[in-house]
Amino acid sequence: MSEVKEVKPKRELPLSRIMVNEQTAQVYAEAWAASEKGEPIGWSTAIFPQELCETFGVPLVYPENNAASISAKKLGEPFIEHAEGHMRYPINICSYARLNLGMADKIIEPGWEKVEPAMPVPTFLCLANNSCTQLMKWYENLSRNLNIPIFFMDCLYNYDEEEPAPHKIKYLKKQLENNIKKMEVLFNKKFDWDKFLEVQKRSQINRKLFNEIVALNARKPSPMNGFDLFNYMSCLVLCRGKASTTRIFEQLKREIEAHIQNGTSTYGSTPEAYRVHWEGIACWPNLGFNLKTLRKYGVNCVMNGYVTAWDVAYEPGDLEGMAKAYQCSSTNSFSTSSIMDMRTKSIEAFGCEGMLCHVNRSCKLMTFHIFVGRDMIEEKAKIPSTNFDGDQSDTRVFSEAQFETRLQGLVEIMKANKEAEL
């Protein structure tokens, strides 16, 4: 007689998460509707100036966000296999790229039926290289395979500069102006500068709200499981310039403030024994295992530098300031020492006792600085750190045993450090 396993009921989602799901569904519905009408629809990198297409009223969807969502649902392998097999892309390139290139090839096949994870075929691409240089080759391949144009923002690297040189800001401002002119031609529509100002204002309201929410996690114990930030981060990717994001963040902030008042946390009933900084992108296919194992050892990843990449701060109406903000966004903008200085400040502000570094096989740029950066963190922040191997979409790289073993080692050091302070 086979044993009947008890099925635990799923945890009820808070209202803010339900609102996120509804907003995401609306974004995809609008994109599919535009595609079916033969109207322009774009695919965009995550930190391209979304204010432009938002002003034009042209829908955008985001392959990186889409790949993360598909991977979290464990639906990415067929697309990755298609890219590596039929399309002959090598395994050493970004798994987001492989997944998306595989999907792009499948959705143009005759008789392809629309399924939940798929995005509609784009008519143009929006590309900014402020987060990754490999994006350029990824999008060049999309452009060639789909025979569509790219609107490109070339964000120059800042070596040891804390502030980008004036000529770099002017260079990006000119690109903004040039892309607006080219979009007017492609969309056959004049750019509405008054609406643009309103979109900028809304983007800054949402950026500020998200920062306020993240800052609440500095409390001890924290009112949030740090992985929650990955879920709400998508609002800034997909809808940074929309009022719907404002409503979501206002609701989330109320929920978190209620947790603080009630002494509860989305981390759950497990005591928060250790607070760590998570460095790098999430292992989306392994997110459940990561969270379960962290809770097993009482570890909460209260902060993550990745979720701050959408803190694109500027004064609405100041195009040069907006150009500077995008020039200074994300990983491909500053040196390892500059990034680790930011991490050190964050670690101190959030009371982190250790650093858990995801050596992401896909994201070379975000990963390579970890090996030098770890030493900087240990010296400046005076906390231990450890690495584990993984990937943002490719399940073949991650090892559950290694992840737990590395976490155990980190916990042992953090425990010893706490005991030495007594």
From TrEMBL:
InterPro entries associated with the record: FldB/FldC_alpha/beta
Keywords for the protein's UniProt record, in alphabetical order: Iron, Iron-sulfur, Metal-binding
Needed cofactors: [4Fe-4S] cluster
Domain of life, per lineage: Bacteria
Gene3D superfamilies reported in the protein's UniProt record: 3.40.50.11890, 3.40.50.11900
The keyword Iron appears for this protein: yes
Record Pfam families: HGD-D
Family: Belongs to the FldB/FldC dehydratase alpha/beta subunit family.
Protein name: 2-hydroxyacyl-CoA dehydratase
Phylogenetic placement of the source organism: Bacteria, Bacillati, Bacillota, Clostridia, Eubacteriales
